Amino acid sequence: MATLSGNQYREPYEADGFYIASEPVLPAEAVRKACEGMDAIRMGHYDTGRPPCPSIWNPGDDPARLCKIEQPQFASRAIRELLVHPALGELAAAVTGGEMVQVWWVQLLYKPPGDTQAPTNIGWHQDRYYWTVWEEGSELFTAWIALSDVRPDCGPMRFVRGSHRWGFHRGGDFYAQDLSGQKETLGIPAGSAWEEVSAILPPGGVSFHHNLTFHGSGPNESGFPRRSLAVHMRTRNSRPVHNERVGLVQYIDDPELCPVIYGRL
Ligand SMILES: O=C(O)CCC(=O)C(=O)O
Questions:
Q1: CB-ligand 1 contact for 144 (6 Å cutoff)
Q2: What's the total number of domains in the chain?
Q3: What is the model's pTM?
Q4: Which of 29, 123, 223, 234 is most buried, with most CB under 10 Å away?
Q5: Which domain holds residue 106?
């Protein structure tokens, strides 16, 4: 059903646990507007009239810390529009082979630059650890949209190649700051190689990763903010535990907030 043909998208995703689209997928104008939406949310201005979900970073908090805001599409029209751009859904379907793709949770991530003591690293983790509201085996993945130029010195996300085949480990921690120390505690399967691949992306570029792929990121030494949206998606092969609408899945029946961006539910 995917309109982007061929296995060039799906094969690397299945082999490596990630796919990096290093050419812009989303148009510059839509990305520019989403950046304005991001700035507005960071200042507490919501053009939809609705705030994002409770978040670890709130307007007025230390600008030197990593800013993570939950469900920014609740609060910004431009971010909503970016998520439903057809190119994103088509690529997500091509990468995962999904006949249906739905956005079910979004995180705004703004990693400030600077040689600062404030925590801006993102520790090694598997997203599945945080997604216990979904039944085991659910097809869940993340599209990470770059809203700024994500160069090697910006603290890009780093994927561990093939780690989606290592099973589920409980040792990951999004908030860990010592990435090299943490790596030693993760219990990598014997005989497996730890190979990190940086997701270098232009504005509008997108990477996709499997829910078991280990990933993390270091400091932003570029002098300008690293801006992105982590867009958590699912295919039809997914189901909330007991089919209940609680926690992270509580909004999935609302197509305005959790749009189906490819196929039909
Ligand atoms: O932005 C990062 O460096 C990591 C984001 C992340 O953990 C995710 O998208 O799942």
A1: yes
A2: 1
A3: 0.97
A4: 234
A5: 10-262
